[in-house]
Recover the amino acids of this structure.
């Protein structure tokens, strides 16, 4: 087999890899960063796509984030691949925080009292006894309205950061390639 270990992993190695990956937790972030940097679109398109993907992750439309991000990216002339990649901001680790924040912001914006004072919402009861139409008022509407401010704020911040990072990366890459081209020995008779 091509990528098989020479020495099979022991139980201790398997347990350690469950808790801490061999390449570390930062590897997916480095991969994502380099994948975004190497997109061939303009810095504006890449930044707008990433901002659209992150903004769509704030919406309560689970399963539709990719479609929402592509539509948003198309509206702001962003790169569709960058938008699709950036939807990974919404993942099982971040969704509980996103949902809690959007619901609290939404209930505050709708004027339904202070969401921090003992307001309890039994989601299990709502999902088991009511349909989606009954969920609109207490859950989906506040989350949808509450998603707008953090989506706009995070989208603007991420757009600015991504734009300047991509532009700087491309400038450094262009200079590095020019330096390599200058240092390349001229082959005799190559221009004949």
């Amino acid at each position: 087999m091509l990528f098989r270990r020479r020495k099979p992993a022991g139980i201790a190695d398997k347990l350690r890899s469950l808790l801490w990956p061999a390449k570390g937790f930062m590897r997916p972030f480095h991969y994502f960063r380099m994948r975004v940097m190497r997109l061939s679109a303009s810095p504006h398109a890449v930044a707008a796509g990433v901002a659209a993907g992150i903004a769509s992750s704030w919406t309560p439309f689970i399963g539709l984030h990719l479609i929402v991000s592509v539509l948003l990216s198309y509206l702001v002339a962003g790169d569709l691949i960058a938008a699709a990649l950036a939807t990974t901001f919404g993942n099982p680790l971040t969704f509980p925080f996103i949902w809690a924040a959007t619901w609290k912001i939404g209930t505050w914006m709708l004027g339904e009292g202070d969401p921090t004072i003992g307001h309890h919402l039994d989601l299990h009861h709502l999902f088991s006894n009511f349909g989606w139409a009954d969920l609109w008022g207490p859950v989906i509407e506040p989350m949808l309205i509450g998603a707008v401010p953090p989506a706009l704020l995070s989208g603007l911040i991420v757009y600015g950061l991504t734009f300047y990072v991509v532009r700087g990366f491309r400038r450094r890459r262009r200079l590095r390639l020019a330096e390599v081209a200058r240092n390349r020995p001229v082959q005799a008779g190559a221009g004949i």
Notes: The radius of gyration is 23 Å. The chain has a mean pLDDT of 81. The CA atoms of residues 120 and 150 lie 23 Å apart.
